Amino acid sequence: MMISSKGRYVLRVMIDLAEHSGEGYVPMKDIAARQEISLKYLEKIVPVLTQNGLIEGVHGKGGGYRLTRPLEEYKVGELLRLTEGDLAPVACLEKDAKPCERTTECRTYPMWRRFTQLLNDFFDGISIVDLMQEK
Known about the structure:
Helix content is 50%, strand content 6%. It is mainly alpha-helical. The radius of gyration is 17 Å and the shape is elongated.
């Protein structure tokens, strides 16, 4: 499994918003400049965050975006699932996967199921606050 640039950029945007949360609404152009992400690319990412209620925006003078909940409630797993879909490493474990007829005799299925759980637990155990403290 590979995390796309969209997934990585969503984390950078959320960290940036968290670090500037005391400043009110943060203009998208400021985030783009600090994070060295094109404004055009950000315009594809930000709607995903607003539509899912993770951030809110105001247009016009003094406008921008801000977080909608306490920083520690933003988990990396939630953010990555928004951009990457579920984090299953194999098709048979994806959210809406058709049941595999080999599941009962598949010798690798239990391993993939445990790995998927570990992966989700790992990312769900990391908050934006944790990432802000990394240097």
